[in-house]
Task: inverse folding
């Protein structure tokens, strides 16, 4: 497993992907009685995937994620090419239409949130951010003069620029004022250093203590490095926002299965409804292929030719 982690990190896979792949590889090994993967191949992989689908009843995306983890293991750790494994089962992906809220529904959900939870949810809807993209924002990525948010290392390791809603500028300034005061207090107490990506902390030793590198949404409590005993702040945990949004959706009386990611779906759909070019929306969302963005054309209230149901003419 240490070899797997090294292979993932040298290829700069995300930490979440590393955790997920390692979990699937462990499950695969235990499924076959803790046999070494080098002793197994196509039959064992297919047996594991079949058990996931038939007994575990996992979704096609989950099944394919497990397959991707195993293919990575054999290609980059065991040293066997895909063709040598024979024919492996790959589930056919299902095309799902995303859940989208109306503007009134978005407003109703936001009215049941407050403080930084309201601000985060508002950015998810107003800027089309993914939850982790929002939580990993650093102060230097907010450009009030240009009304822009710079998203670093988004999904697929891509950077992009999206909009900063005008109505969120003042609440965000007030929030950052509190973050600035909190950071100053941390520095006065001998702490106030934040984790930096990659090896930037070695290249710029003073950067971790600079305000520009601090999280936009830091945790209330400081974490402690068990090795160095240094204290610092991480960003807010995603589960806190997910639970708050889930409760807000229930309080708003919505029957739709809305989550934090629903705000992003609603952002894209409402821009297309307003007549904005799909290529523009694609850039704001950070999609590599416009076909991914086109899924939102299927949930518009009106089609591209303003088609109405014949029932409306009765």
Result:
């Amino acid at each position: 497993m240490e070899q797997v982690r090294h292979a993932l990190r040298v290829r700069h896979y995300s930490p979440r992907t590393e955790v997920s792949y390692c979990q699937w590889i462990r499950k695969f090994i235990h499924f076959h009685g803790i046999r070494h993967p080098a002793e197994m191949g196509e039959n064992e992989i297919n047996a594991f995937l079949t058990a996931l689908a038939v007994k575990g009843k996992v979704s096609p995306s989950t099944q394919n994620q497990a397959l991707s983890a195993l293919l990575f293991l054999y290609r980059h750790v065991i040293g066997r090419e895909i063709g040598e494994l024979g024919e492996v089962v790959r589930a056919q992906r299902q095309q799902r239409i995303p859940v989208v809220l109306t503007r009134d529904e978005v407003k109703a959900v936001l009215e049941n949130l407050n403080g930084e939870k309201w601000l985060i949810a508002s950015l998810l809807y107003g800027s089309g951010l993914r939850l982790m993209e929002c939580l990993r924002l650093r102060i230097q990525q907010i450009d009030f003069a240009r009304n822009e948010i710079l998203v670093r290392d988004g999904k697929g390791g891509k950077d992009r620029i999206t909009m900063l809603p005008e109505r969120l500028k003042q609440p965000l300034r007030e929030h950052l004022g509190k973050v600035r005061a909190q950071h100053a207090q941390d520095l006065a107490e001998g702490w106030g250093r934040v984790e930096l990506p990659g090896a930037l902390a070695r290249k710029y030793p003073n950067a971790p203590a600079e305000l520009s590198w601090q999280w936009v949404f830091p945790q209330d409590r400081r974490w402690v490095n068990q090795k160095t005993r240094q204290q610092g702040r991480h960003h807010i945990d995603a589960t806190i926002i997910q639970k708050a949004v889930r409760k807000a959706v229930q309080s708003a009386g919505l029957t739709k299965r809305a989550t934090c990611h629903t705000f992003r779906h609603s952002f894209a759909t409402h821009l297309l409804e307003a007549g904005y070019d799909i290529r523009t929306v694609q850039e704001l969302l950070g999609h590599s292929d416009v076909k991914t963005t086109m899924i939102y054309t299927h949930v518009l209230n009106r089609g591209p030719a303003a088609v109405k149901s014949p029932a409306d003419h009765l």
In short: The first helix runs from residue 2 to 10. The beta strands are 142-143, 148-151, 160-163, 223-224, 231-232. The chain has two domains: 2-85, 97-304.
